[in-house]
Amino acid sequence: MSLNMLMPRIGRSAASALRTPTLRSTFTQPRSTPLTAALMSKRWESSAAAAAAAAAVQPTPEDLQRLNSLRNIGISAHIDSGKTTVTERILYYTGRIKEIHEVRGKDNVGATMDWMDLEREKGITIQSAATYAQWGGTNLNIIDTPGHVDFTIEVERALRVLDGAVLVLCSVSGVQSQTITVDRQMRRYNVPRISFINKMDRAGANPSRIIDQIRHKLKIPAAALQVPIGAEDAFEGVVDILANRAIYNRGSRGEDIVYGEVPAHMVDTVNAAREELVATLAEVDDEIGELFIEEKVPTEQQIRAAVRRATIARKFTPVLMGSAIKDKGVQSLLDAVISYLPNPTEITNTMLDIDNGEQVLDVIPHSNQPFVGLAFKLEEGKYGQLTYIRVYQGRLEKGQFAYHVKTGKKIKIARLVRMHSNSMEDVDSVGAGEICALFGIDCASGDTFTDGTINCSMSTMYVPDSVISLSLTPKDKNAPNFSKALNRFQREDPTFRVHVDSESKQTIISGMGELHLDIYVERMRREYNVDCITGKPQVAFRETATSKAKFAYTHKKQTGGSGQYGRVVGYIEPIDSAQHAELPYEFVNNVVGGNIPTQFLPACEKGFMDGLKEGFMVGHPVVGVRMVLEDGQAHMVDSSELAFRLATLNAFREAFKASGPRILEPVMLVEVSAPVEFQGNVLGSLNKRKGMIVDTETQEDYCVVTSEVPLNNMFGYSTELRSATQGKGEFSMEYKRHSPVMHSVQEELIKEHQAKLAEKK
What we know:
The protein is α+β, with helices and mostly antiparallel strands and 761 residues long. Helix content is 30%, strand content 29%. The chain has 20 helices and 38 strands. The strands form eight sheets. Strands 18-17-23-14-15-22-19-20 form an eight-stranded antiparallel β-sheet. Helix 10 packs across helix 11 and helix 16 packs across helix 17 (641-657). The longest helix is centred in the middle third of the chain and has 18 residues, at 267-284.
């Protein structure tokens, strides 16, 4: 995959620097026949020329007004920070829903955005859900995302298509492990964010400590725009430090906003907070910086303009606070979304011109441009496959034809809908910057659609590797829906992978964690009536070399007639997998003098790739290896592609055995939160599982322990933690890296693998 394909949003100067023919992606050109080739080339004769002509077309005033009053935002956070509760209040205050239902409410209805039965039973968000609303004349497209690390792909693809985000933080727990992951994803896609400190009514609420964590743990300048009036049980409202007024929520559900004077005992606190805000902005905004140096006091309008500039430039995050469960502070958050987050015209998105060496072109987010859209999420509904699309450029209308860039297929848009959780509303057309959904389109997540006048592709999204696998066997061997369910889940979720083990012939499913796979097994039972038996979880081990090893291998076979002959000479050496994360291996051709004919060199590389698929120790893939081919020998008659492919494969296997091979295991960053009195029990349980304690932090009467633990030792930890903390402890974990296992563990793993092989014989 090219660097271009992984850089969805870049500044104009960076974009121009990338406009070189050396950056290529593994893009699949549209399939064509001799009959259609002429038509395709005529239709796409010059995407760059079409794009240049389109850029000269000025947007209509109506379209500019629509774009200026449009925000595409996501609600993201660590699990249990209150994202879905915040979204429920947003929908209520904007008039999208008539009554509020809680995530784990006593009425057993559940929050609007958690529409799956599993979500309502477990009280967690599993799939991202989209909706739209209106606040003060501004249209909002909102995506509520999961907080659990197992469903991180839902956050990934939501942030890929959004222009801004609200990062929700708990007023007690603050920045947690998944908060850091979400922050990393926001940076990857250059998404500006507003921070909202939720749960201000909780015991131990401390917003100043949370703001400090944002600055130091997330490494982004932050300052409060509000000061809380009271805290914990006495939390009443907030003071807007820019308008210098108190804001209270009244009414049965906080729908009535009452403004008042700043309480007398808080005047000094508010003035200090305003000074801190100005000082922070002075470091990231030139205009405020100049006023600060000249010791002039900026006006409210100047500060608001600076907050907006710095937020959109991703140099600063404004911090608001409230309590969604107590119906406080959400309307102020909506006002901040409109005031400080960008509209689609203020974000630079790029696309790649396929016809001109993947030249980087800026997307022009106006409706009178050629249509370009990105399919970012698939979902199986009662009417067939539902495809969520972000329209980046142009207009999508019901009845028009669109072209699937990857395959070149022409598709008619039969039905166009806007989503509200799991319900939908038919629309006739959707303009640039909008999010909509289509029915009956055969595509994959990350595919680009155009109107056919330009041949451009949007960049794809980052998909993390799976870390855990399970064998899966249906109780009824003839269950017709088994493969149907697996195929659907793979199309919906790029992190859910399925393959059949070549030796055991078992179906193996792989994902991001135990919960991730458990959810899919349960969904198979509920949605497809397929009961399955799962095997013991298998960790995604890797094998790697630790030292340089030379090889000189001759493959010779004579069976009558022309035989097989190929000789390869060179060495393998370790490389740093972290620095080569996209491609954790490398093949280097240093052969000179034509000792290996050029037509056989691709076969040598294929042989190397064959060797990487399965190591000899535990049968897992090999990573972190560079193979350098220095010399070789060919036969006039007997040499062939197959001969050199087998020669390289066997040479690699021999050299790998001599390179001090090690087994790598996934290491997880585990964050455990429990009452202080159980800190010793928590530390003991992590040490017992060979965990390395990274950090311990005490917050009021709670302690947070951060450690790195091998995933292979984490199975069943939730049960142990509950019993060790009387059910009061909770933990989260995310993939950190692959690290070498201890020598004793490596020997055990090799013995287990050899025993399995012996059983199969």
